[in-house]
Design brief:
Layout lengths: L1 E6 L6 E5 L4 E4 L5 H7 L7 E5 L5 H4 L2 H6 L4 E4 H7 L8 E3 L5 E3 L2 E7 L8 E7 L3 E6 L14 E5 L4 H9 L5 H8 L5 H9 L8 E5 L8 H12 L2 E4 L5 E3 L5
Parallel strand pairs: 3-4, 4-5, 5-6, 10-11, 11-12, 12-13
Antiparallel strand pairs: 1-2, 1-14, 2-3, 7-8, 8-9, 9-10
Helix pairs in contact: 7-8
This protein binds zinc ion (2 copies).
């Protein structure tokens, strides 16, 4: 199984988990043409697309995905907020209710962000094991036991965010919003420490702020604190996500 990052950050987000026969898309923030290219134009292998919340960087192209015949899932709150026109509709997921989609099983859970009913996802496939996906959340209230891969937001560093305001690069209101909607490096480290990491193979840091983060610093810090292989999610990143090392 491979993870491909088509985009990550406040402009656009889209991640594809796939092997030869099956693909699961997370977020609809890039045009369908890029997804087609990523899956080798084999639309039949796409099981679903999961959308975490209503912000455009995560859902801008939902209409195109639906038109391509993909089942797109999100919380009822997200579906209501996106309010897609047209014949094909998004499908609702219920928090903490496991849904089986072919060989995948998905458990959505609530996260903490400034929008309607946002979700993170615990995803299982026999090849990659348990994969945690959590972005656009300043905090994670749940703990997970048996993870194999963690895709988690690491948006900003407290000191860089503060500096950006002092230098006049960022409005204080935006700083306040960031504190209440996105995950800091400090919280990311704390969150990882509170989960059992013994079977974790990869940690992928998502949705870095271009202004308020230093990716080398984040990668080093998370690596030192967890002893795991750490990647920064960037357009074009492809990594193996198998269960075993
Ligand atoms: Zn976002
Ligand atoms: Zn958001």
């Amino acid at each position: 199984m491979k993870l491909t990052v088509l985009a990550s950050g406040s402009k656009a987000n889209c991640y594809v988990l796939q092997n030869e026969n099956t693909a699961l898309i997370i977020e609809a923030g890039v045009p369908m043409s890029q997804v087609y290219e990523c899956i080798g134009y084999n639309i039949k292998k796409v099981v679903a697309c999961l959308v975490s919340h209503e912000h455009k960087d995560h859902c801008k192209y939902v209409g195109q995905y639906l038109d391509a015949g993909i089942d797109v899932f999100a919380s009822s709150g997200t579906i209501e907020a996106i309010d897609i026109a047209g014949f094909r509709k998004m499908k609702p997921l219920i928090g903490k209710k496991v849904v089986v989609m072919k060989e995948w099983s998905i458990m959505p859970f609530d996260v903490e962000h400034d929008c309607n009913d946002p979700f993170g996802f615990l995803i299982y496939h026999n090849e990659c094991g348990n994969l945690l996906f959590a972005t656009d959340t300043y905090y994670l209230k749940y703990r997970f036991d048996d993870l194999n891969h963690i895709l988690i937001e690491c948006n900003y560093q407290d000191e860089v965010l503060k500096e950006s305001v002092e230098k006049g690069l960022l409005h204080p209101v935006v700083r306040r919003r960031t504190l209440q909607s996105h995950m800091s490096l400090r919280t990311c480290i704390k969150t990882l420490a509170e989960n059992k990491l013994s079977n974790v193979v990869n940690i992928v840091l998502l949705h870095l702020s271009s202004l308020n983060s230093d990716e080398d610093h984040m990668k080093t810090k998370i690596g030192l604190n967890t002893g795991k292989r750490v990647f920064i999610a960037k357009k074009g990143l492809v990594i193996d996500i198998n269960k075993d090392f």
